[in-house]
Amino acid sequence: MTPERMFHDLQGLGLSWEVTESVFEYERSTVVLHLRETSALWPSLHCPKSSGHAFCYDHPKELVWRHLNVFEHRCELHCRLPRGRCRGCAHTWLVRPLWEGLSTLFTKGFAAFALLLMREMPMTKVAEVGYGEWSQAKWEQIGQTLNGSGATPNGANIRVSCCILPLYIFSPLPGRCCARWSGYFRG
User: Fold this and answer.
1) Pairing with 149, which of 30, 37, 79, 105 sits 20 to 30 Å away (CA)?
2) pTM to 2 decimals?
3) In this predicted structure, what is the pLDDT of residue 163?
């Protein structure tokens, strides 16, 4: 069994997607998984406008999703998502992958982990546990925004009761910004 096949199984990618390459980037302490669709994806896809049969039109630029850590190392999924085109009406759309969460920057698993931390812990603790990627000030900023409160001493008492957050704070790519707000759940 290859690492790619093991990662495929761990991700639960099914028959429609495959891990084509897995690389450990030592300098960044990051596991990078390259994914692509398989031919099994296309019979299951239908046009969102006319429900017609679809085919692979092209593959625009590569996208990156932050995923849960793998053996204490950062993990990113890289994929050039295909665009589908309807055989009937010629409508073209970007195929959304099954691992993508409510944000185009994170997998469902990573988003669930981040939201769990913010719901269950004070922001000072979240900054310690949150993979060390974000400062306490960032977590405090999120908590203040979510709670509609003013500043609190070191964010010690900030807890998240309604998770609506600016996703640009978690961007896995330097300089990449997503100013969209997303509501995940209410607690």
Assistant:
1) 105
2) 0.71
3) 37
